[in-house]
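Technical note accompanying the year-one report. For the benefit of new consortium partners, we illustrate the data format agreed upon in the data management plan: each record pairs a sequence with a structure-token string. No post-processing was applied to the example shown here.
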Amino acid sequence: MPDRSPSAILTVRCPDRKGIVASVTSFLADNDATIVEATQFNDPADNQFFMRLEFRADGERLPDPAGFGSRFASLANAFAMEWRLREASFRSRTLIAVSRFGHCLVDLVSRWKSGALPIDIVGIVSNHQDLRAFVEWNGLPFHYLPATPETKAAQELKFRTLITSLSIELVVLARYMQVLSPAFCADVSERCINIHHSFLPSFKGARPYQQAHARGVKIIGATAHHVTCDLDEGPIIEQAVERVGHNHSAADLIEIGRDIESDVLARAVRRHAESRVMVHGSRTVVFR
């Protein structure tokens, strides 16, 4: 029978020095915990250390977070650690935003409903009505927030209010074709994931796949990243590419690109949900 003891995930970031791993693992052993998975990264460029530990309680219950924190504090302070502890079964309350292209949304909802995506989708936001039937058929609330140049500020305020009122912990932009304000980006810092085609910055603006086809590209792809005030330039979480050739039409590129976008976004959301992503300046450390 598989071990069903409760487990937790501890993530740590601190200046790199000798003895961090030994101290943390010894602490867990002294607190009746068995390590299930351990990954680490030492960045020599700026002397930073990153670690993710999943551990199982040897008893029937996980350590009390408050009690664990008070006991772990002295160790954390000694190494100047930034750290986070959560139960492995935790599911982030997630709000997905989409415009008219539904491929990423359909993929995320399908994975979530099958149990393959460890999040809790609590609603869908859209500035168009196109996907309302799909969303409501899946039993999810559909929040229609139309946007025009004249109403954009008010629309975004409603979006931000919705995030707060629903206690949203993760926002996923699944081909949501609206530029977010600096205030919105600040609100969702490190908890908002976007997907875009990897043609940027070569093929900005409308019809990127048609632009790519006209230039005879040989590789297409997609990038999932954290949202920041710098448009489409946030820390990258996941990427993928696929080779294409002269025999592929613009329509072929669109179809291939949509499959890549869906897969890349789902992987990025899963990595985030499992506490495998740690922002490191303008890039990320991603534990696979």
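Partners are asked to follow this layout when depositing records. Residues 92-286 form a domain with the Rossmann fold fold (CATH 3.40.50.170).
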